[in-house]
Amino acid sequence: MMTADAAPIPLVDCTPSEGARAVAAEIAALVRARRAAGRGVVLGLATGRTPLGIYAELARLHREEGLDFANVTTFNLDEYLGLRADHPQSYRRYMRERVWRPLGMSLEQGWIPAGEIAPSQVDAHCREYERAIAEAGGIDLQLLGIGRNGHIGFNEPGSPRDSRTRRVELDALTREDAARDFGSLEAVPRHAITVGVATILSARRIRVLAFGESKREVLERTLSRPVGPEVPATFLRGHPDVRLFTDLASAHGKAAR
Ligand code: GLP
Q1: C-alpha of residue 178 to centroid of ligand 1, in Å
Q2: Mean pLDDT of 193-203
Q3: What are the beta bridge partners of residue 110?
Q4: Which residues contact 219 (CB under 8 A, 6 or more apart)?
Q5: Is 11-249 a CATH 1.10.1790.10 domain?
Q6: Dihedral (CA of 212, 218, 223, 224) sign
């Protein structure tokens, strides 16, 4: 029998727009099937540039085809600590502008860690976030990007497999990559709240996206390094329903189509 650690991640060889359409179509099918059964859907959502095409396609399906998100609850992976909710780089603002509003969702349907929380409240807030995910029935489908240092959410190198929602210190490379959007390195927060590796692995389906040359090296490491905290994305190997959409698949000769 294959050990969990040895299981490869199935790759889907696609362009960014093909990947966005495929994942959006999968989400739409899930939302419609659950609606027909009178049930809700819980989505785990990511920020960053990578999922923008998915959100644009979902917004189009909402506008042009009447896809209704009334039965959907979303939980975000992470948020910077110390940013006001309306800060241009806060993930809450990203979600309001790119996801909740364009999909016709009310703010009560969307959960994201609170970036403005007082330090003394952070631990209780993180426990409450985990409890809210569990009470919603767990995550049906988790969207995921990969940071260039192998992070998933803000689970930076060193994050253990059993980690849960918590405060983390951001890695130097993560802050460097964010500096472009913040205008300077000094403006990038030093800490964040992220769901844990275990929280992510508890999702029933995980759809990862990684496109472009800047992700080649981390993709290589995700697929070939020993599974462990050094490259947190390696923990995805062995998940029973994970797929990685990428335009770098041919380099690995493992394309799923
Ligand atoms: C950010 C986010 C991650 C995201 C990653 C990649 O730091 N916290 O959730 O997946 O980095 O971002 P991008 O999609 O812009 O490459």
Answers
A1: 9
A2: 98
A3: 74
A4: 146, 210, 244, 246, 248, 252
A5: no
A6: positive
CA dist 31 and 43 (Å) reads: 10
- pTM given for the model: 0.94
Q: Catalytic residue at 78?
A: yes
Ligand 1 pocket, mutate which of 146, 169, 180, 214 (most atoms under 8 A from CB):
146
How many Å apart are CA 124 and CA 126, to the nearest integer?
5
Nearest residue to 112 via CA among 43, 176, 171, 56: 43
Quickly state the pLDDT bin for 44 (edges 50, 70, 90).
Answer: very high
Q: Quick check: is 76 catalytic?
A: no
Report pLDDT for 97: 97
Mean pLDDT, residues 171-192 taken together: 97
Q: Give the side-chain half-sphere CA count within 13 A for 208.
A: 31
Tell me the residue type at 236: L
Length of the chain equals 257
Q: What is the mean pLDDT of residues 198-214?
A: 98
Question: Does pLDDT of 252 surpass 70?
Answer: no
